[in-house]
Amino acid sequence: MPACCCNWAGRCCFSCWGGWSGMFRCIVSRCREADMAWDGDKSLMQRTRWELGIFGHYFRQFVKTRLAYRLDFLVDTMAVSFALLVQLAMLGVLFSKVETLKGWSYHQVLFIYGFSLVPLGIFNLTSLNLYRFSDRFIIQGHFDRVLLRPVSTLGQVMFERFNVAGLNEIVIGTAVMAYAAVKMDYRPELRDLLAVFILGPSASLVYTGVFLTLTSVSFWFEDRMGLAPPVYNMIRFARYPITIFGSAVRFLLTFILPFAWVAFYPATWFLGSPEFSRLALLTPAVGLVVFGGAVLVWRTGVRNYSSTGS
User: What pTM, to 2 d.p., does this model score?
Assistant: First the structure.
């Protein structure tokens, strides 16, 4: 067993970490709860706390690696921010030609657009490995390394690498929502502020569930690109009211690829839409169902996995 795999006998937990450069580094965390976390008599909560501590080390080491090249980090951050601002400018150009979009005003659409960036940022923060999972983990055989460690396989894949640019989307999305709310003379109540902290993460579960399901298909059908990248391009549909699309697209975005639940439906809670605002309350349930189903597919795929032997 590699030196950076977990040592069951001692009190030290050794886990490997792959940075953005693809190099593996070892995190050595001296935790007295290491043995306890894997004791069958202990609670699931203790094991979860222990694993979250490991993933916290992943994040800290990743940030240190990125900040070692500060100019590169700054350029990436500015590029993501610039791309988002260009998209917002294009939305302004669109509404310079029309006053409403199927009954939705500029600031209403802007609010939906801003809300869509929050769950997208949460998802992008931890989804970097999902995008290239088939090539990196299945075809190149890196999933063998994941299986060697007594830590959640899904947790390792999700938290081994981070897309820090996702924080830009969260910040810019929040700022856009605040700007649109001011322009609409919208005065949020306490329940609305609580709704943001519930609906935002719930919507990110929809993103994660959809792409985790697509990623899990790689366990059966090996392909360097996978299904996730093409479907990722459909995320842009989630940034607009679904009523501007035809019935077939609405059905697709609500039930097949449920991207309507990541922005439009939850955002209508704040916009006070009598037709859709009640559906916003279903967002947490939809997120849990989509993500829970994806986890089941993932676990089935892990059991089906066979090593490349390389």
Answer: 0.82
